[in-house]
Each structure stands twice: as C-alpha cells, then as structure tokens.
C-alpha cells in the first residue's frame, strides 16, 4: 500500500533493502504474528527477527498469510549466542529456515560478537553465502574494534552491521567506519523504548515539525542513511513509526540531535565481550 514511499538502500552485494523495518524482539505467538501482519499492511517491507526471540514460526506464518509476494519482503534473522561456532551455526541456520518456512532468508546475522567464536561463526556465514543458501550475511553489535578484527579473517564483507544507535548513543566512529567500508549501518532500539521522549530538546523539535518524538528520531536515522528497525506491537505506533517520509530535518537540526549523545544504552555494551 505505502511501500513505494519508503527509501531503499543498495547493499554492497547489490541487494536492495528498505531503510525502515519492524523489529520483533520480545513479541510472542499471536502478538508477534499480528504485529507483522499490521506492519506489512501498513507498507513495511523489512522484518527483523532472530533465533533468540523465539518467534520465527509466527513471523514466517504472518509473511505467508500476508498475500504479499515473498520477494517484496526482506527478512532478517540471526544466529543465537549458544549456537555460535562453525558447525553449530550451520545447524542453527537450517533450524531457522524450517521455523520461518518462507523459502529463503534475505539476511543472516551474527547476533553478538561472542568471544572465541567470532571467526568460526563468520566462516559458517561465508559458507552459507557461497553456497547461495542465504542472500546476504552480516553482523550485529560489532563496534569498531570487532569490525577491525573481522577484517583480519573475512573473505566476504558483511553487508549490514546492526547496533544500538540513537541520538543519545550516537556511535559516530561506527557510522563513519561503515560508510567508509560500504557496510550498511542499522539501528536497533532506535527510539530508546521511549525513555528519552521527554528530552526538552527533542520536544522542541516535535513542536517545530509537528511530529512525535519517535518520528523525529526515526527520521534522524534515515537522514544519516542509517537503516532502522523500531519495535512495536501496537497498531497505532506501527503506523506512526512508518509516517516519517513526508518531512525532512534541516542540516542544522540534524546537528542539534547529533549533540544529544551521552553514551546512554538500553542494551548490553558489546565491548563487554571483547
């Protein structure tokens, strides 16, 4: 319905991916399925799940029942931390394929940079890609030191690096690194689970643009060329989060929002795994 409105990015292997998607962390059974169906009806064409979320069957079911052609929906899932290592990752991929039951996976990510497992896990993803069992491979939670380490053993470059990235956690070195290497940065928990919505500087911008806090933050991501996957099971919020393509932020206001950075995290710091 609204899919044409949203911007796509071309990944470094030539695959096109929507910049805006729906995250489905902490959603289960009927709630997860209903959220994906609503998102697809709204116009979302990127759905991000993970083995660790325990909802791959519901996500797959929603996609199959949506009536939208499979090739129009970009689906991401991830190998869970206990399943890392070469052989385990290969098995985990097969399990995700069966649970999703949607024909193929568009993007398979290393969920976290597990110490002692990073190289072998990445090698498994390379095998899956070389064997054309997955369309794209990438990483998640790889801050710059992990990306440098990855360069020492990777024969295939990741297409995406998904990290926690918000105005209050403006990880500029990762953004710059990924832009320089043509890796698409993607932000999870982009709207801080609402914890920063009362920031007076943000509220001022909401009044200026007549937009909600979530819409300003998501638009800021898009302006930076960052893919973003806000999570919501609320139908009204799913629609609200999609309504960010009818306005743009000025360069001055983008710079103001960049200045919100204070190292505020919702999730664990990946560097704890270094």
TrEMBL record:
<keyword id="KW-0560">Oxidoreductase</keyword>
<protein>
    <submittedName>
        <fullName>Aldo/keto reductase</fullName>
    </submittedName>
</protein>
<keyword id="KW-0521">NADP</keyword>
<dbReference type="InterPro" id="IPR020471">
    <property type="entry name" value="AKR"/>
</dbReference>
<comment type="similarity">
    <text>Belongs to the aldo/keto reductase family.</text>
</comment>
<feature type="domain" description="NADP-dependent oxidoreductase">
    <location>
        <begin position="27"/>
        <end position="261"/>
    </location>
</feature>
<dbReference type="Pfam" id="PF00248">
    <property type="entry name" value="Aldo_ket_red"/>
</dbReference>
<dbReference type="InterPro" id="IPR036812">
    <property type="entry name" value="NAD(P)_OxRdtase_dom_sf"/>
</dbReference>
<feature type="binding site">
    <location>
        <position position="111"/>
    </location>
    <ligand>
        <name>substrate</name>
    </ligand>
</feature>
<dbReference type="InterPro" id="IPR023210">
    <property type="entry name" value="NADP_OxRdtase_dom"/>
</dbReference>
<dbReference type="GO" id="GO:0016616">
    <property type="term" value="F:oxidoreductase activity, acting on the CH-OH group of donors, NAD or NADP as acceptor"/>
</dbReference>
<dbReference type="InterPro" id="IPR018170">
    <property type="entry name" value="Aldo/ket_reductase_CS"/>
</dbReference>
<feature type="active site" description="Proton donor">
    <location>
        <position position="53"/>
    </location>
</feature>
<feature type="site" description="Lowers pKa of active site Tyr">
    <location>
        <position position="78"/>
    </location>
</feature>
């Amino acid at each position: 319905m609204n899919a044409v409105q949203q911007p796509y990015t071309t990944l470094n292997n030539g695959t096109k991916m929507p910049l805006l998607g729906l995250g489905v962390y902490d959603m289960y059974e009927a709630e997860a399925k209903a959220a994906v169906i609503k998102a697809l009806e709204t116009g979302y064409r990127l759905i991000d799940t993970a083995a660790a979320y325990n909802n791959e069957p519901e996500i797959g079911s929603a996609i199959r029942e949506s009536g939208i052609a499979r090739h129009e929906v970009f689906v991401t899932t991830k190998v869970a931390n206990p399943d890392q290592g070469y052989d385990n990752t290969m098995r985990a991929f097969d399990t995700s394929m069966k649970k999703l039951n949607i024909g193929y996976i568009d993007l398979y990510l290393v969920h976290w940079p597990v110490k002692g497992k990073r190289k072998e896990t990445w090698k498994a993803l390379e095998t899956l890609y070389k064997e054309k069992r997955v369309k794209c491979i990438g990483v998640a939670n790889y801050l710059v030191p992990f990306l440098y380490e990855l360069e020492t053993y990777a024969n295939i470059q990741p297409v995406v690096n998904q990290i926690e990235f918000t105005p209050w956690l403006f990880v500029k070195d990762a953004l710059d690194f990924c832009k320089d290497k043509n890796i698409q940065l993607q932000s999870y928990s982009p709207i801080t689970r609402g914890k920063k919505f009362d920031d007076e500087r943000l509220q001022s911008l909401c009044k200026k643009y007549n937009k909600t806090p979530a819409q300003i933050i998501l638009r800021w991501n898009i302006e930076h060329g960052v893919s973003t996957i806000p999570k919501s099971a609320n139908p009204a919020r799913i629609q609200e989060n999609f309504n960010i393509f009818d306005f743009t932020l000025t360069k001055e206001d983008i710079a103001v929002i960049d200045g919100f950075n204070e190292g505020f995290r919702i999730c664990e710091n990946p560097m704890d795994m270094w």
